[in-house]
Write a structure and sequence with these properties.
The protein has a single domain, classed as Rossmann fold (3-Layer(aba) Sandwich), CATH 3.40.50.150. It is globular and about 40 Å long. The strands form two sheets. Strands 3-2-1-4-5-9-8 form a seven-stranded mixed beta sheet, sandwiched between helices. The protein has helices at 13-19, 23-29, 49-55, 67-79, 118-128, 165-173; strands at residues 38-41, 60-64, 86-89, 103-109, 129-140, 149-150, 153-154, 177-185, 189-196. With 197 residues, the protein is α/β, with parallel strands linked by helices.
């Protein structure tokens, strides 16, 4: 089992909800469709997992390295009365060993900036995507942390850990992807959707 990525702990629910009160709208903006099978990679406490399960009628897998986060995500899914195909407690770089099928879409939110081996992770994601699969990375904007306040306090990763869309694209495109589109996710995030090339 690998070590947790740095500075990727989940925010408290109160400010996560204040930041994005409608997680389903974020998922739809990222192009996730109801007929897709999706992997919520580094799912954390399930803020996106439960809405994802609703959107794709349960055809979602959820992986996290932290077993406590998986339990929180599982409880959130139960609270919203949705099912998940499989909860996976594993290192994100080992996903191919744990998924029983290839998926149409991999979502990774608020974690990529802290991945120690980003090219290795990209290769792992590529290995579990079906043909014409999509990989979306949601990141904090590359702004000073003091500028990204939620409920009156600075939030998100350290300023020096933040990545521009161009920096993310450079890494992901070397792993067999091409950038499809970049979506602004106000107030402080962007999402990049990559297609297998």
């Amino acid at each position: 089992m690998g070590e947790a990525f740095p500075a990727t702990s989940m925010p408290d629910r109160d400010w996560w909800g204040a930041l994005w009160p409608d997680p389903l709208a974020i998922l739809e903006a990222l192009g996730i469709k109801s007929d897709m099978t999706v992997l919520d990679l580094c799912c954390g406490d399930g803020y996106f997992t439960a809405p994802l399960a609703k959107l794709v009628a349960g055809k979602v897998y959820a992986l996290d390295l932290d077993e406590t986060m998986i339990e929180l995500a599982r409880a959130e899914a139960a609270l919203q009365d949705v099912s998940v195909q499989k909860w996976i407690h594993a290192d994100a770089r080992d996903i191919a060993e744990h998924l029983p099928e290839n998926v149409d879409y991999v979502l990774m939110a608020n974690t990529f900036h802290g991945v120690p081996d980003q090219p290795g992770l990209v290769r792992a994601v590529r290995s579990v995507l079906a043909s014409n699969g999509l990989f979306a990375i949601v990141n904090w904007e590359a702004r000073a942390r003091e500028e990204t306040t939620v409920l009156g306090a600075p939030r998100g990763p350290k300023t020096e850990m933040r990545m521009t869309p161009a920096q993310v694209a450079t890494i992901v495109e070397t792993g067999g992807f091409k950038s499809r589109n970049t979506i602004e996710l106000p107030p402080y995030h962007y999402g990049i959707v990559f297609a297998t090339s």
